[in-house]
Amino acid sequence: MGRCVVKAGVLKDVNDIRFLNVADPVLEPGDMLLRVKAATVCGTDIRIYRGKKTAGIRYPSILGHEFAAEVVENGGHSQFSCDQAVVVCPQFACGHCAYCIRGAENLCRNLRAMGYEIDGAFAEYVRIPNHAVESGNVFTMPEGLSYEQASLAEPLACVMNGQSLVGVHMGDSVLILGAGPIGILHIILARQSGALKIVVSEPNPVRREAALAAGADLVIDPMKDDLKAHVMAATDGLGVDVAICAIGIPSLANDAIALVRYQGRVSLFAGFSTGERATIDVNAIHYNELMVTGAFGLTRLHFENALNLLSTRPEVFQSLITHRYSLSNISDAIATAEQGHAIKVAVSGI
Hints:
- By secondary structure, this protein is of the alpha/beta class.
- The protein has helices at 43-49, 98-101, 130-134, 147-150, 153-166, 181-192, 205-214, 227-234, 252-259, 282-287, 300-312, 314-317, 330-339, and strands spanning 6-13, 16-22, 32-40, 61-62, 66-73, 85-88, 91-92, 112-113, 125-128, 138-140, 173-177, 197-201, 218-220, 240-245, 260-268, 291-294, 321-325, 344-347.
């Protein structure tokens, strides 16, 4: 690449991220080189930073998987041109394992992802492997969409995957436990899917306000109010059709199970820290004929659908990014995202 100085937020160890000079990305034949224009902080980035997620993590490495960029070198892929705005689906499936063949590329046994096995977007430049480009992981950014808004495609695509698995339908009542960035996206998507009533449980007052602004009908502070009483009052004593755990607290799994109606559906959407366990009320699942599902990652189709929704309904997502930092202040960006004062934190520029 031949640039004098390349900057990045480098994860040196648990609880240790620094703004440093790094080597130019080394390109192999067919690799693309992108200049990062905007990236957003994910809860997973925080869990990696705090040592609560360890699978696939290297030290030193560069985190960041929610981003939009412009092309610097197209690697010979003529569909992309220099300075073109692009967005990248950051999970790269092999395409030939048993899960890829069955259409579950997010569960690929050979999955390689940016911010994990491949250095991510908290940097000036990122390398996109040839395989990922040829597989269709690089998308042209829709016209009229800002780089910051386009960075939301990855988390929105994950939420789409989770709601498709648990089934959020027209007329459903939905309970969302947690109104962080992911919980807010669940509110928006549930409303877009035709949910009739959306109840949210969130102890943080800033996030309760954000949940109402995003379209929730009823927002409860579980530290002060009786969540079950409110849910039952809102659903004629039946419980909600769908409950979604949008924050990784294992004990919430039983709360969700207790608050859905008979034949209700529960999504354990959020990632949980390595080694965490929960005691589950298996009798409630059995006798009430409940469906409980997990949700992990996204597919390229989810990503494409997320980009389309962002570009056709940009006004719905405009308020999600509440704080902005330069790359040189990456540690402050992560701290702000962790403290709960923000909804979504964006990183751009040096």
